[in-house]
Each structure stands twice: as structure tokens, then as C-alpha cells.
Amino acid sequence: MGAGLTDLFAQPSGSTPKIVIAVEQKSDFCVLPLTIAERKGYFAAEGIDVTVREWPQPGAALQAVQTGAAQVLSGAYRHALEQPVKGQPLVAFVLQGRTPQLVLGVSQKSIPHFKGLRDLRGRRVGVTGMQSASHRVAKLLLGQAGLAVPNEVQYLGLSSPTEAVTAFHSGDIDAICFDEPVITLLEQSGALRVVADTRTVRGCAEVFGGPMPAGCLSAPADFVNDQEMVCQALAHAMVHALKWLQTAGPSDIIKTVPEPFFMGDRALYLAAFSRAREAWTPDGLMPPLGPETAARVWLGESPKRSGERLNLSRTYTNAFARRAKLRFKA
């Protein structure tokens, strides 16, 4: 158990539990439900005092949970798959995204006569970072097209949306695997041809061969087992936010989302939100076969072998989200 977890709730009876949720980037579309729950006061309504804190360096948010600087992680489900192998089990207890919201596209300028992914041999592909989810998805797709040999494709890590857009328009990269709102901006400019799109459930299944759970709230197994009331309160708040997102209109988004998230272009943000709306799960539940798909993709194993190496049922629980779904009729 990470430092600080044991003493977290050694508080006077009746006091409000204080929780720190670690996240890499609060403005990321994949964790928008977390922002909605925070901004709409849903955590406070459940009787918990939540602080959402950013650890922007890759891996730093996960490390914050491991060391006890935070109690809960808002991040990719794949962390819950990878950590047991390292002897530090995490349990995902409410799902935010049922797709990774990543899109692979090619430059209309660099490759005007694009016919298939093999046309990217010898080309440069921009990703959010080396060994990031976008890097892994790009390698998966290009590997399926026969470009699995190292150095057949050059990957470039682009740390910010501005850097990604500039690199694409300048020709520094020939293709890109990125998330919103970069993809919508490039689409609107006519510069991007979408090749694979995981913003939709159907597109996600086409890329991964099944449902792919993405962003979620997870915590160390000991925390989930020992602090069930807190996990339930967190799940209630998150499912409440997920339900709100299902019907939220443009004016709702503008009133609720922090202004800096729009990066100076509300219209672009709203357009990206419209394209990504299907990506958020309506009820916080892990989909059937989702863990198997994720294990096959992220661990590089068949579902059968993954199940033998890792007990997938221990990487998540639907118990909290199921009760929240019933309460909010999500």
C-alpha cells in the first residue's frame, strides 16, 4: 500500500473525506467527465472533498498514486493491466471512456495519392509522445499493414497540440496519430485524410477488433477494498457527470468547461466535442470483452494467454458503477 493510504481516513467521525485524484492533463478530452464532476459540484454533493491535481510528466500521475501523493488515478485502463505484472495492482472502478479517441490520418499535401498504410513506409508519423497510447496505436495499425520492422517508419513525439499542428502543416510529419482537438482542426482545414478513427464505437471496434476501455478512475486494490464508501461516492459523482454529458448542449459546455480548455477557439472545441461525444460511456460500466481486448492490444498477447498470466477480473469492478447507474438511471 502506498504511503499515506493507511492514515487517509484516520479522521474525526463525521469529517469529510479528502481525496486527491491524479491526472496528467485535465484538459484532455478523454478525462472530460472528471472535469464535469468537479465543476458541477457532484463530488461535494456526495460528501467528499476532491482535489484534482495535474502531474503533466508522462508516468508522473501513476507514480503519485503509487507513492500515496494521490489516492486515485484518472487515466488509461491499461495501467490497471500493466501494474499487477509489476506487483502494484490497480483496480478500475468507474469507466469514463469506451474509446481512446485517437485518430490516425495522413497529410493530403505530403501523400496526395494515398492508397493504404503501406504508403507510410519511410515516412514520419507524429504522436503525442514515445510509448504513449497514440504511439502504440500507430505502431499497431502500421504493424497490421506490414510495417512492423524498426526504422521503416519514423515516429516523432509532439508534446503539445500547437507543436503537432505546426509540424503537420509545415511538412515535418507526413501522418499523425493524435487526439482532440488537433484532429478536428486539421480536418476542418482540409489538410488531413482520416485513415483510422477510434472516436466512435464502430471505428474503435474496426481498429482493435472489439470494445476498448480507455479513461477510468482506478486506485490501488487495498484502497478499493478498504474504502468502499469513498469509491462509491466517486462512482456516483462520475456517473452523474457521464449522464450529464449525454444531453449537454453547446451552451452547457461553454458554461461548465474552464475557459483555458478552449485554447482560444470555442467553436473548434465544440466541434471536437460533437465528434467525440460517443466516446464517453453513458453509465461508467466496463463493457463485456473490453478487458480481453485491452489485454490483447496493450500486453501483446492473445486473450487466452493474457487470462492465464493475469486475472483480468481483478483489474476492474463494475460493482460501484452498477449501483450508480441504478441511482441515476444512466
Annotated CATH architecture of the largest domain: 3-Layer(aba) Sandwich
Q: Report on the biggest sheet.
A: 5 strands, mixed
Distance between the termini: 33 Å
- Structural class from helices and strands? alpha/beta
Report the CATH C-level class of the largest domain.
Alpha Beta
**CATH fold group of the largest domain:** D-Maltodextrin-Binding Protein, domain 2
Topology order in helix (H) and strand (E) letters: EHHEHEHEEEHEHEHEHEHHHHHHH
Helix content: 40-55%
Runs in which pLDDT lies below 50 for 5 or more consecutive residues are 1-12, 301-308
Biggest β-sheet: strands ordered side by side in the sheet: 2-1-3-10-4
CATH homologous superfamily classification of the largest domain: Periplasmic binding protein-like II
As a whole number of angstroms, the C-alpha radius of gyration is 20 Å
- The tally of beta strands, per DSSP, is 10
- Range of strand content: 15-25%
Q: Based on CA inertia axes, which overall geometry fits?
A: globular
- Distinct helical segment count: 15
Whole-number mean pLDDT: 91
Question: How many structural domains does the protein architecture include?
Answer: 2
Structural notes for this entry:
There is one protein chain. With 330 residues, the chain is α/β, with parallel strands linked by helices. The chain has two domains: 18-99 and 212-328, Periplasmic binding protein-like II (D-Maltodextrin-Binding Protein, domain 2); 103-197, Periplasmic binding protein-like II (D-Maltodextrin-Binding Protein, domain 2, 3-Layer(aba) Sandwich), CATH 3.40.190. The protein has 15 helices and ten strands. It has a five-stranded mixed β-sheet, with helices on both faces. Strand 6 (124-127), helix 5 and strand 7 (154-157) form a beta-alpha-beta unit. Helix 13 crosses helix 14 (303-309). The protein is globular, with a radius of gyration of 20 Å. The model is unreliable at 1-12 and 301-308 (pLDDT under 50).
